[in-house]
Amino acid sequence: MTAALTAIGEGESIRHTSSRFGIPRSTLQDCLKSGNTLAALLRQKPVLSRNAEKELVAEIIQRTGKKENKKQEQQTRIKVRNYQKARLVKRVLVEDGLTQNVICNDSKMAKTVSRETGDVSSSDEESEAEVNKEVCLVCDKFGKNEIWLTRHAQMRSRKIMFVTIVNEEAISAPSNCG
């Protein structure tokens, strides 16, 4: 859409632009009449670059085993954008009332950002290894202020990361825990 609006701004006719980009003329005319043509679109910054988005779209299409056509490609792009929204930095309320930034990613354990320095925790790989071992939360391997992040659900056949904060004091120890 932005490329079509840019082409119209450079002097192309609406009829030629609509046939070139496959966008209906009425849609282009409505966008031009609204006045907010490119400003609203440029405010939204994507998480992935265009090349990374194209690679992800191609990978999803290849995994599903469906033929590439324009409609399915567009639906896949929408799914990729929803995936990008799920990966954005989330603010999590910690038990002391302050907020903490958490960067969600594909792994079971998300990266935590320090409140004091704003740096990403360097022990994420070790934490992910501990998550894969399924360590007991009540044992002394995690302190009181650690945030435990788990993959909580799959919703509408898409992987979405939910952030869950588990407070150690609220969990009772299992009988076999030392």
From TrEMBL:
It is found in: Nucleus. Residues 1-37 form the HTH psq-type domain. GO terms for cellular component: nucleus. It comes from the Eukaryota. Pfam families: HTH_psq. One of its GO terms (molecular function) is DNA binding. This is HTH psq-type domain-containing protein. It comes from Ignelater luminosus.
